[in-house]
Amino acid sequence: MDQVEKIFETRELNVNMGPQHPATHGVLRLVLDLDGETVVNVTPYVGYLHRGIEKLGESLSYFQALPLTDRMDYVSAMSNNIGYVVAVEKLFGIEAPERAKFIRTMVGEMSRISNHLLWLATHALDIGAMTVFLYCFREREWILELFEKICGARLTVTYPRIGGVRNDITQEFLESLWKFTEEFPSRILEYETLIDQNRMWLKRTIGIGVISAEEAVNWGLTGPTLRGSGVPYDVRKFTPYDAYDRVEFDVPVGTEGDTYDRYRCRMIEMRQSNNIVRQCIEKLPPGPIMADAPKFTLHPKDAMFPITHPTKEHAFYIDEKVCKGCGMCLRACPVKAITGEKKKPHKIDQAICLQCANCLAVCKFKALKIVPGGKGLSEDKLKELAQAPLPEEITKAKEHLVEHFTFIKRGPRAPEGDLYVATEVPKGELGFYFVSDGSGKPYRMRVRAPSFIHAGVLPRLCVGHLVADVIANIGTIDIVLGECDR
Amino acid sequence: MTPDTFIKFGIDVLIIVIKIAVVLVIGLLHVAYATYFERKVIGHMQVRLGPMRVGPHGLLQPFADGIKLFFKEDLIPEKADKVVFYLAPVIFMASAMVNLAFIPFSHNFIIADINIGLLFIFAIAGIGVYGIFISGWASNSKYAFIGGLRSSAQVISYEIAMGFSLVGVMIMAGSLNLTEIVRAQENSIFGMYAIPQIVGFVIFVIAAVAETNRTPFDLPEAESELVAGYFVEYTGFRFALFFLGEYIAMFIMASLCTVCFLGGWTLPWYVLKVLPFLQHVPGIVWFLIKVYAFIFFYYWIRATVPRYRYDQLMSIGWKILIPVALANILVTGLVKILL
Amino acid sequence: MTFKKFIKTVTFIEILKGMALTLSRFFSRSVTIQYPDERRPIAPGFRGQHALAKHPQTGEAKCVGCGLCATICPSQCIHVFREKGKVSRYEIEVLRCIYCGFCVEACPYGAVVLTENYEYSDYSKENLYMTKEKLLSNWDKYMPGNKGEEYFKRFWRPMSGDFETPSQQPMFRGKRS
User: What is the CATH number of the domain that holds C72?
Assistant: First the structure.
């Protein structure tokens, strides 16, 4: 026997699976050491989709960074948006109104359904059941169309806003969503007819990728991947955000901690989410959809109308008596219509002025006056008109406009400090950690992405199994590389 | 040799050549439209439409595919074993095509009506696997290599099960000649062997799916695991040859099933008794209907079930199919002796 | 193995059920939309290609060139250039745009919109670099008549109605089961 081994020296087959591989869900790269078909060693490599989202978040204001979260877990962009928005709201210390909370819960659960549908689709396709893939996409398409109805985009929704949601839902949307929730449970049955009891599905999933409750917690698993092992941890239950404390739902848990249990957990979760959506529709309260927190939200457009409406022809005029000559407006003016020396009153060249209101927003001494209907008037006339008291609506509009400009130019200012807020996205616990230095941009934005942590557990799940089980395991931990690499 | 016999010989050859030409055309047209048929069937099962663009309802899609594959750049991996790499698809394709010669399409339409037809088909189908195996080896790619290994292991185990499942038919018909087997079925009280040989039939269907590398036994080319398995490095027309070979192999398996279990070109006598006008329909129509029903079944299965794992596939083959097939042979033999 | 389980195994009952489902779907209507021939209905407020709004009466661009859109744009794809009293160039790099719609929300003048046009693929980068003229012609093309005004009414948010309780709010009026 020794002689045989000497002649036929054996070594493991080193297979590079990914970053281009149909089953690695994007650009995950696994380096497998195979002994025959048995996996001896797995090394996951991540980072092929790294776009520096955390770093980008530091150079964008809290408001601007929202679309970045769409691009993390693009499969359930809505949940990521909500996670970000909830975290930032906590940082600012503001609270969204009831109606917005219910709408967010509703769309968040829709997003959970759509995510689990895509997970089931790809998981089943990886294991070979390709019809489930298309059936799932049929319903996912339905949800995406509903998303399009509320916010105009299907995938990268950017729908929630800090302090509420972008726009109110329509009656038509509510009715069609209700129709969806009525139809959806029968569609879940369809998928289950194809795979739930299928002997091949059972053989491919039962006893594959077993991880005990204790180990799963130690690995930092969250979401359905953890619950499959029997740990009933769900952020929605433990630290409820939005309207989760006002809807009833169960947290399904598995017993064995294998691929099949995780699959069952997600299937039940889809039904639970469907229930939550129904409850949200029923309980949807009337009320505002944006929080009344002028420092942290965009300002109502119609409140600025007295100044910004295109039919109004105002002129801007600098009051010589008030102007201290600080030069702020000089720098803010995009067309260099303002002239003047330092510490001397500035002057606006009315022929060049665009009436864009940039100067208005930066003037600290209220030297800039609005002259209603003063466009095209002579300098003396303006001087005369500027002394007259402004109508109240214009004064109010001016306040709003100034706040609006400041909000956009500088970003909403967060109090100093740091904070970690976790939300339950379909993949697990999505955490945002902010370090704020009191400016409009986070000093540090850290994202605890469930996919990244789940990708780490792959070697633990795969070693000792066969090549085909690697595929099943990639499917069962439900990772999206956009979120993993960030 | 007198001129008379010479002319007779010439006519015989001519007839055979014509038959070959006809079968070849049928075979290639079959492949072209089997791909179309598959895509349509699976598409509709998945609430899609399948190909719709080329020609009305995508009817010219197979030709578009063929032309595209023909004109594609022919890539050969640098470190591939070139000769073997060239040879593999030819072996695979040729072995599949040769088998067409032994299929009795109708009572008088068979290219080579030999007495050991059944064995011959097995033998040639066994050669086909060399094409797969050496293509996997010659590509010098790890995925292709694993695919080739899987395929050889799979075919070895499932050929045995398939052979055993047909032994029952051989015993009942008392012949290895495929025409004889059909005639024996025509004269039997069941009309087709799928009824008395139900166990053998089920085993044959499972083994046939495995033999042609179709879902749920498509492990050698498991798309999600091995990307495309043994032909992952093949492009252009060489890839097309593998494709052709696979569909012809499916046709062979469907024909074999039709001939051995479903009564070939004949209809069971009880059907004819109820609907006597059906006997005027030419036998080849029944044959093709049965074959395509079986091929539809192939597609149907593919649209429904997931894929087995490699070790599970092996254990099904060795631990379930082969013992059951042996038991079936035993029972069939006993019944044959006792009656 | 119980008898029931054995029967289930040998009859392939669960696979047959699945096959029955796929067969029934084989005869049901497919959901495919044959794209260039038929199109999906686009929801109002779709975030597609940009347009610069024109004043309904004067027909001139509403944009005054304040540059808020350029400031808020997370991908910095908007460039505004002004010259003596007018906006000389207003350009959007379509290839960089992420269609978040923040420019619409930031603009206090209601000057920029996202239209429903999503079919603007092209072979050259120049054609995908939207100049002011192109953006203004987009407004005529995709926001004809009242459509633009409707767009601003519904999708130019937030309005003060969003901060208080409007009288007519969409509520679920279906049956409560």
Answer: 3.30.70.3270
